[in-house]
Amino acid sequence: MSRSPRITPGPMAPRPRAFTLLELLVVIGIISMLAVVTVISIQRVTRDVKLSTGVNRVLGALSTARSEAIRTNNPTLLTFRIVKDLDDPSQPAQVEMVVAGFTGEIVKGDNDGIRMNASASTTDVCRFIPSAAVAPRYLPEGIMVAGPAQDIGVVDDPTGTWNFMSPGPWTPIDDDGDGRYDYYRSLEFGSTFGVLFGADGTVITRNPEAQTSASNRLYNWVDYDDLRDNNGNYLLNRSSGSGSSNTPFFQQGETNAESFINVCQFLAVYDEVKAKQDIDYTAFVGAQASLGAGDFIEFRDRILGTWLDENADRIHFNRYTGLAKVGGP
């Protein structure tokens, strides 16, 4: 009788070893760090894309303003102002880019509709109106523009000083008590500026169509509302401020204000969200309460201007053609 062959059991397969608590914690830590790095990278890319979009929109608006100057054979401004939705204060403020053409009218600073104080009789204001052929354009939320303060009247030494737009926070104002907001007022004021194109498309700093005395101060003003008083005088809706000073004419403190426009030869586009992450903006608000307008602008420039030099995208213009480009002059 044959026997079945005897089967000798082989070595037992090793049991799979479970992760220890320490190993699990290490893995979780690595995954968490990778997640944080990924989020930061996505945020940085998103921020860069938004800034790039803003720069491209500014370039597009500049090109349109230049083309409009050539088409109309007339000095044309591209200016920037802050706008907010009057029906919904929760909506963010945005930068509005407006193309405006010179009307050929020059209003004296002591005109009843202007009512400047110091040097009013020797101040000439070129009146511009928004172009009917070009709709306003808007920058992405948080993208702002700055310009050199080379023409502003409240800074003693504008060399190397930047003009900044009002960053807010914005308070809705109902002036007439009808239950609807009329405009917004900023806790921190800024300045209004723009780029002026001549009829040949080049960037200029003084309107050649303004036949005024060489000794007179010459400013530009975009008349957004076309309001006049009973005597037919154009009304410049300046920011609220001291009646004994010309400072409010150069401030952008309210969304409906029609400030004098500082003409710039280059621009800087920057991400205000990033700036507020890197810089304590509350210091500016406190300084504004204790300093005069010029001193405040120079104080803010020493901090925010230094940051701007390192983080903003510069836009310069070809001196012969007026074409804009990103980068050095």
Explain how this protein is built.
With 329 residues, the chain is an alpha+beta fold. The chain has one domain (26-326). 26% of the residues lie in helices and 26% in strands. It contains four helices and 16 strands. The chain has helices at 21-72, 272-278, 282-290, 293-311; strands at residues 76-83, 94-108, 123-130, 137-138, 143-148, 162-164, 170-173, 183-190, 193-197, 203-204, 217-222, 252-254, 262-263, 267-271, 313-317, 324-326. The strands form three sheets. Strands 1, 2, 3, 4, 9, 10, 11 and 13 form an eight-stranded mixed β-sheet that branches. The radius of gyration is 29 Å and the shape is elongated. It starts with 20 loop residues before the first helix and ends with a strand. The relative contact order is 0.16.
Tally of helical segments = 4
Kindly name the structural category.
alpha+beta
> Could you name the ranges where pLDDT drops below 50 across 5 or more consecutive residues?
none
Q: What's the helical proportion of residues?
A: 25-40%
